Amino acid sequence: MFSLLAKKANVHFLTTHQEFFKQYIVHGVGIDDNPKKGYSHTGVILHAFRNIITPIYGELQAKNKVKYAGKSLEFRQKNPRGLVYKSGNKNLVIFDDIVTTGLSMLEAKKAIEKDGGNVLFGVVLSDAKG
Fold this sequence. Notes:
The chain is of the alpha/beta class. It has five helices and six strands. The strands form two sheets. It has a four-stranded parallel β-sheet with strand order 2-1-5-6, with helices on both faces. A two-stranded antiparallel sheet has the order 3-4.
């Protein structure tokens, strides 16, 4: 499912924002894209966008492996992932599979900027409320 959604999103970005991607050398990073049982949602999404961004795998990692599924905003605020970015000064698009509260995306942005990266925007394929 994520592969199909990612391919459709890629076509949309390519047709509607083609000039934008010609202006920048753009890299993409997935939030904690470590494969679990050989599969990573954000890795699949990054792969689908490889014709307009250069994927960077495994460079935005969570120190705290807390599970957020079904947890409240309060729980998420008290238990940050502790994201660490390792690839330095690049123009980046942050990719995630699902957004519930937006805290992971904000934490990723802060981690990337702390290490000198420039966040252009984020791409999320699914809204938990939708």
